[in-house]
């Protein structure tokens, strides 16, 4: 999985969603960035996006508060998005997940934007994936011995 901002830093600056939390909310007050990660294995078609919510404070990002998996091709449900069990979650993770669901419901264009980001990441991966080049999945192996075989 690779971060969208690693491949498209300028576009990510413009399109990354920031959720503002006011004093009355159960979360600490501040801005929470929703960073997107995508699978760039050219043979995989999972359509999943990993969303990491991180608090932005004093020009730095804190450790993720919640890490969720969201499939933008499926409707919202109690299982989409869901908190990843193998990721470190904070006590506020479920609250962040609920805020993310509310954002998806009130901004249906966000799912469309995620699908466009997915397509852009896949296209970039295809361009980077030369047979003898290093695999774009960050494994360190050559593409022909890694994702090309999957």
Could you describe the 3D structure shown?
This protein is of the alpha+beta class. The protein has one domain. The protein has four helices and six strands, in the order βααβββββαα. The chain has helices spanning 4-7, 9-15, 93-106, 109-128, and strands spanning 2-3, 17-21, 30-38, 48-57, 60-71, 82-83. Strand 2 (17-21) and strand 3 form a beta hairpin.
Summarize the structure.
With 150 residues, the protein is of the alpha+beta class. The protein has helices spanning 4-7, 9-15, 93-106, 109-128, and strands at residues 2-3, 17-21, 30-38, 48-57, 60-71, 82-83. 30% of the residues lie in helices and 27% in strands.
Keyphrases for this structure?
single chain; 150 residues; alpha+beta; six-stranded antiparallel sheet; 4 helices
Number of helices: 4
Major sheet characteristics:
6 strands, antiparallel
Low-confidence stretches: none
State the separation between the terminal residues, measured CA to CA: 15 Å
Spatial extent as radius of gyration: 16 Å
Mean pLDDT: 86
Q: What is the string of SSEs from the N terminus onward?
A: EHHEEEEEHH
* Helix/strand structural class: alpha+beta
Per-chain topology:
Blueprint: E1 2-3, H1 4-7, H2 9-15, E2 17-21, E3 30-38, E4 48-57, E5 60-71, E6 82-83, H3 93-106, H4 109-128
